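Board notes (copied after class):
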Amino acid sequence: MVRSALGRGAVVATIVFTLAGCGLAGQGTGDQSAGSGKSSAAALKDLNKLQVKGRAPMTGYDRDKFGPAWSDVDHNGCDTRNDILKRDLKDETFKQGTHDCIVLTGILDDPYSGKTIKFERGQKTSMDVQIDHVVALADAWQKGAQQWPVNKRKELANDPLNLLAADGPLNSQKGAGDAATWLPPRRAYRCTYVSRQIEVKIKYDLWVTSAEKDAMRTVLNSC
């Protein structure tokens, strides 16, 4: 079965070609939309609502503290990873008998690099496209999440707002980085990326460091 849908994402086998990305979407004009339809001005206002604190130690952090990876939290019969692949990929095909759940192939227009990537499910190819936590879980742990109950941490780990299909190597490069230490190499996407981080941190009452706030402000002022 094949399904076409723009703006969806996930596993990779072949990189077809690279698109340049400087000074376009999310960069260049003050009224440009950033994040989930918010202007950069609105994102800056939200940024000023976030608490500024130092980074707490990583003591006690474990991915399992945020629940099992890729749970079916919305009880639609499909795990979160496949939900995000369906959302972010286009021209998907699905495994028969899974009610259009398990994505076998598709095309990702990678927001972080500008590359167009062919996704193919398989042991050697699935990690070429990864699902990025826009606010990394380890970063969240150091900025408030270690005080949360497990259910709230699980919600963050599976919230579509905080998830994005992306180029696997770039996601690995990002690691637990915040905006002060890592931004998408595709400059055209940085306003959207930073605005989305702010939305997540507002929603879950996570704080930012001073350096992180300065980096976010610098990006948004250039939009």
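Comment from the instructor: The mean pLDDT is 86. The chain has seven helices and nine strands.
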